[in-house]
Amino acid sequence: MLTVDFDRLGLEPGDRVLDMGAGAGRHSFEIYRRGGNVIAFDQNADELAQVRDLFAAMKEVGEAPAGAEADVKEGDALSLPFADGEFDRVVCAEVLEHIHRDVDAIKELIRVLRPGGTMAITVPRWLPEVINWKLSADYHNAEGGHIRIYTDHELVDKVTKGGRMNDGTEGDAMVFEGKSYAHGLHTPYWWLKCAVGVNNDKHPLVKAYHQVLVWDIMKTKGWSTLTRGAERALNPVIGKSMVLYFRKPDAA
């Protein structure tokens, strides 16, 4: 279940890509399939071990093009262990809403992106997230949960002013190139979960809706056309995730 549009990001085979906050690796795997040289970065060693194993399995069965490389790295988002300008593309999906010092994390993302490179940042969309918070305190009070709700204007401002230009002078660190929304079909599911109890997975309505999402993810014949159409219709209105695209200005 991808949130980032890699065509819009400009991903090309051979690109060096950082997936910051990779989690279980959903975006990293797609980058690898497309021939990118990807680093799945996260602070969860257990998840990274599973991602590494799946990278190896993908290579073994030929799911990634020859020459593509994939690896994992454990560390802190506030102090990325990479050189300035090391990556052509950076992906940061559903991470910043968990980080108290989000501006410092954004500065690190900008630092490791090369001039001319592109970045995709995704966070929960404001309206669906506000409703979740109002329906359930447990939704965001859990350990490691969401600590803020972004508007698009706030996050764009933080990223475009998140650093210095290449010559050291003050200026917009990144150029905002547009936005989209994703996972509209998931928004009512989370509203339902928050309404009946965010951990109440046995509720019949929750179970039924979850099955619909499974059919969609698995592209079940007969259902995928219906669910894909519903997703496309819902994304502009209540898409659960907001996706912002940026480009780092060239050194010249």
TrEMBL record:
Identify the InterPro entries for this entry.
Methyltransf_11, SAM-dependent_MTases_sf
Methyltransferase type domain segment(s): 18-121
Q: Which Gene3D superfamilies match?
A: Vaccinia Virus protein VP39
List the GO molecular function terms.
methyltransferase activity
Is rRNA-binding included in the keywords of this UniProt record?
no
Q: Name one GO biological process term.
A: methylation
Return any one Pfam family short name: Methyltransf_11
Keywords annotated in UniProt: Methyltransferase, Transferase
Record keyword Methyltransferase present: yes
- Might you give the EC number(s) for this enzyme? 2.1.-.-
Name listed for the protein in its UniProt record? Class I SAM-dependent methyltransferase
